[in-house]
């Protein structure tokens, strides 16, 4: 059949079908690192509030961590509109689960992404879960995880200093140490962050706050000293 002979309704449905199946190939507004750790009572997570439009730090008040149901907390790096889509999907999933009214509720291990690297943590029936998954399906569980530059800059600190009996206060200090290093080294990070915790009692997300920083370090005054090549 010639294209001119194809009914208009068939053409339109084909166009709509193609549009509906599109996926993010070129992210526009993105968030950087999320860092999560287990502590003695539950899970702690931290992320700054920057949103980068390409290489421009366009937004400085983006929340990238959200509670999901009763037992889970999710934080995201990557394309922020895709994170919003994931949250919409998860809201529908939680609503559908609640409609069963069977006394059961979804935990952190029951969730499946888009253009994002996700950190998912939760506590259910006394068991703590902390894991990460990226856009191509690479996933793992550990006692501490990170996305973005945090995977390279924060995890060495966590390997040295994390232990399973961390108190809430010490856990927050450790996360802040990681976030401070990321602020110094990651151009997409901003000095405005939130910290979250989840325990059997529920989720608590802090108000945005800034870290104390010092830019008077010798390495920042003349960063090209000792570097090879013309500058």
From TrEMBL:
<dbReference type="InterPro" id="IPR016050">
    <property type="entry name" value="Proteasome_bsu_CS"/>
</dbReference>
<dbReference type="GO" id="GO:0005737">
    <property type="term" value="C:cytoplasm"/>
</dbReference>
<comment type="similarity">
    <text>Belongs to the peptidase T1B family.</text>
</comment>
<dbReference type="InterPro" id="IPR016295">
    <property type="entry name" value="Proteasome_beta4"/>
</dbReference>
<keyword id="KW-0539">Nucleus</keyword>
<keyword id="KW-0963">Cytoplasm</keyword>
<dbReference type="GO" id="GO:0051603">
    <property type="term" value="P:proteolysis involved in protein catabolic process"/>
</dbReference>
<dbReference type="Pfam" id="PF00227">
    <property type="entry name" value="Proteasome"/>
</dbReference>
<dbReference type="GO" id="GO:0019774">
    <property type="term" value="C:proteasome core complex, beta-subunit complex"/>
</dbReference>
<dbReference type="InterPro" id="IPR001353">
    <property type="entry name" value="Proteasome_sua/b"/>
</dbReference>
<comment type="function">
    <text>Non-catalytic component of the proteasome.</text>
</comment>
<protein>
    <recommendedName>
        <fullName>Proteasome subunit beta</fullName>
    </recommendedName>
</protein>
<dbReference type="InterPro" id="IPR050115">
    <property type="entry name" value="Proteasome_alpha"/>
</dbReference>
<keyword id="KW-0647">Proteasome</keyword>
<dbReference type="InterPro" id="IPR029055">
    <property type="entry name" value="Ntn_hydrolases_N"/>
</dbReference>
<dbReference type="GO" id="GO:0005634">
    <property type="term" value="C:nucleus"/>
</dbReference>
């Amino acid at each position: 059949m010639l294209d001119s002979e194809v009914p208009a309704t068939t053409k339109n449905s084909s166009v709509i079908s193609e549009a509906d199946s599109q996926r993010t190939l070129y992210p526009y507004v993105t968030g950087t690192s999320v860092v999560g750790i287990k502590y003695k009572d539950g899970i702690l997570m931290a992320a700054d509030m920057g949103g980068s439009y390409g290489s421009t730090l366009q937004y400085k008040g983006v929340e990238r961590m959200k509670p999901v149901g009763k037992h889970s907390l999710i934080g995201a790096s990557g394309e922020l509109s895709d994170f919003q889509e994931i949250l919409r999907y998860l809201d529908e999933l939680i609503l559908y689960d609640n409609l069963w009214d069977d006394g059961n509720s979804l935990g952190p291990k029951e969730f499946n992404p888009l253009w994002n690297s996700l950190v998912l943590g939760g506590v259910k029936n006394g068991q703590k879960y902390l894991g990460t998954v990226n856009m191509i399906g690479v996933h793992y569980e550990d006692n501490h995880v990170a996305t973005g530059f945090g995977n390279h800059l924060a995890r060495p600190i966590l390997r040295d200093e994390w232990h399973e009996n961390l108190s809430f206060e010490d856990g927050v200090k450790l996360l802040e140490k990681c976030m401070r290093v990321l602020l110094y080294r990651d151009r997409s990070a901003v000095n405005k962050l939130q910290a979250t915790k989840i325990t059997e009692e529920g989720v608590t997300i802090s108000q945005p706050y800034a870290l104390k920083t010092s830019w008077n370090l010798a390495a920042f005054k003349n960063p090209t000293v000792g570097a090879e090549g013309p500058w």
